[in-house]
Amino acid sequence: MAKQQILKNDPQNDQDKGITAISVQGFKSLANESRIEIRPLTILAGANSSGKSSIMQPLLLMKQTLEASYDPGPLLLNGPNVNFTSFDQFISRLQKNSDCQGFSVEINHAAYPTLKVVFSLNEDQTLEIREMIIGVGNYSFSLSPNQSSGELEKVISIVRQKKLPEGMKWSVFRNRCFLNVAFEALNDEAKVKFSPVLQIYESGIFSFFVFQEELHNMIHVPGLRDNPQRDYPRTATSTDFPGTFENYVATIIAEWQENGDDRLKRLEAMLSDLGLTWKIFAKVVNDAQIELLVGRLPKARRGGKDLVSISDVGLGVSQVLPVLVALLVAKPGQLVYLEQPELHLHPRAQYALAKILAETAKRGVKLVVETHSALLLLNVQTLVAQRDLDPDLVKLHWFLRSDEDGTTSIESADLDENGAFGDWPEDFGDIEWKAEGAYLDAVEERGE
Question: What is the residue-averaged pLDDT of the chain?
């Protein structure tokens, strides 16, 4: 029998699209520069409060800042994706040799430049963008609020071969959580702002606005998801999903049902593979409310009419539903951040969920999965060993918190062709083996 071939990924559908890495420094326990590579299946693991969420929260802050209906300043602290009430709650006090209080976030993109935004606290404890750095290949340039027109002209002359109109000067202005460039009258009267000069580089076109688009399109399924409801409010849906994703699930399912979208059947197949239910149905109560009905049992009974409200079955269905719908709506290159996708799932379902995540990764979606499930990780390894998942699609990041100074460090690993990843911190899968060993030792001692 011929050896089964590994299903290789199409580079145009994953690594060559979307965000490829995130670096954070000075944010909570990430005092030192911390970087994670983003692949189609990126797994964040570690103990509670080890810093897993901290690597993604700067992006969530920027996402909710861009999506606010007003300009909240450099960052919207209290929003739908992440909630802070003061800068002290996330700006690290653990940084050594730091000349200011602040943090930075850097985003790498497959097809566009690197973007780094540096935030800092002023003496009056207000937040500002101290600097924005854009890197293209081996060249980088920076913008800062106090740059003179002459300094800006030197930068802009490299990226745009065009001189200012007479009587005008260059200036930097803040655009939500980014800096931008405009020209204005020398006498400071009637600023004239135009499409950013940084859109043009040599003969090609790029714009840091691609990063805005990436953050807008980012799907966030939080760890704290709503309890199942009798009726869900109808929401507007499009290609992006402001705020957290669970708010859109009922409406998306209703639209799939109305349009005969094949993704509804795929959703039901996923739920069946997890051993949760065989059917989901969106009952439109009125113009404002939708009721979600599911099969009461994992398999169809009574001619397929045994449906009950989602609030009348176990929490596993309602908690995993936003995860599954997010996987189905996401497009290649789109970043999907899943916090604890295994929440309220039986170990068997946690194990099966890995294959669903792997199938989505093979479509080129960029999944960042924050998990405590050793079973989920074990099945990812198994899928690689079975040649059903290309190990190049997977990246593991383990977060460790120092007992001495409280800072977080990150250990990263790749899977080999057998699904192995070398040394891995003990307190993940090993705890299950130790617990089983302790039980067997206890039973043996009682038998003496």
Answer: 85
